[in-house]
TrEMBL record:
Residues 12-250 form the Protein kinase domain. This is Serine/threonine protein kinase. ATP binds at residue 40. Pfam families: Pkinase. PANTHER family: SERINE/THREONINE-PROTEIN KINASE (PTHR24347).
Length: 250
């Protein structure tokens, strides 16, 4: 049965599918007050993922993180309702590459906002675990929000067996090995995105990044160190260094 047109939760009308989360189908919806929403619908057998995401995301309150509104039921399937972040996914917003060359100020603002959101998330004991362009929504001026907490969980959370989180191109080495993940693992993903912004490409795992004279090269190197013990692990410190190197106000 088509879902578009259905009214769910507290008067939210589903309009059209707009994408997929790690475990869900995402619909664009509109509240009875006319506010745009994202409605993530999970298959019934994956209800525990909806429960987990709601538990971790419902208390988050920061301007650089997507905001969870509540829960709903769609034809017997659990759903989560979130405020719809304005803008485009990162790779679409920065179509001219390298982004740090063609749209430098906006791109660096995006990176600063991502780090600001991560600093808050890490401060409440959580890690995002899936830093990638699709989870960063960017407005025209570069303002950004980090969204989608499907895979988020407590820092250094352990499981019965090694569990690999994230998307391969942006995974830290320890994520690829299935180790427990901490803040430094999220920052590795930021480093990959910063490298993409500087060079206009993604390096393959283990591949050496091209040389550059950009002053941000030192921060990039500190974020993508293979050994997590040598990598930057403080998102707010990384944000300050980004702004310092870029010559922007804190």
């Amino acid at each position: 049965m088509p879902l578009a047109g259905q009214v769910v939760g507290d008067g939210i009308r589903l309009v059209r599918p707009v994408g997929r989360g790690s475990h869900s189908l995402v619909y664009f919806g509109v509240s009875r007050e006319g506010q745009p929403c994202a409605v993530k619908i999970f298959p019934a057998h994956l209800a525990h993922f909806a429960d987990r995401e709601y538990h971790h995301a419902r208390g988050l309150d920061h301007p650089r993180l997507g905001r969870m509104i509540g829960r709903a039921d769609v034809d017997g399937q659990p759903a989560l309702v979130a405020a719809l972040a304005r803008g485009e996914v990162l790779f679409t917003r920065y179509a001219q590459r390298p982004a740090a060359t063609h749209d430098r100020r906006a791109f660096l603002l995006t990176m600063a906002h991502v780090l600001d959101g991560l600093a808050y998330l890490h401060g409440v004991g959580l890690v995002h675990r899936d830093l990638k362009p699709e989870n960063i929504i960017v407005e025209t001026d570069g303002s950004a929000k980090l969204v989608d907490f499907d895979l988020s969980g407590p820092a250094l959370e352990t499981f019965e067996a090694p569990t690999r989180f994230g998307t391969a191109a942006f995974q830290s080495p320890e994520a690829a090995r299935g180790e427990p993940l901490g803040p430094e693992s999220d920052l590795y993903g930021v480093g990959i995105l910063l490298g993409w912004g500087l060079h206009g490409l993604l390096a393959e795992p283990g591949e050496t990044w091209p040389g550059t004279t950009d002053p941000l090269a030192s921060l990039h190197a500190a974020l993508v160190r293979p050994d997590r013990r040598e990598r930057l692990h403080d998102a707010q410190a990384a944000r300050r260094e980004l702004l310092r190197l870029a010559g922007l106000p804190y």
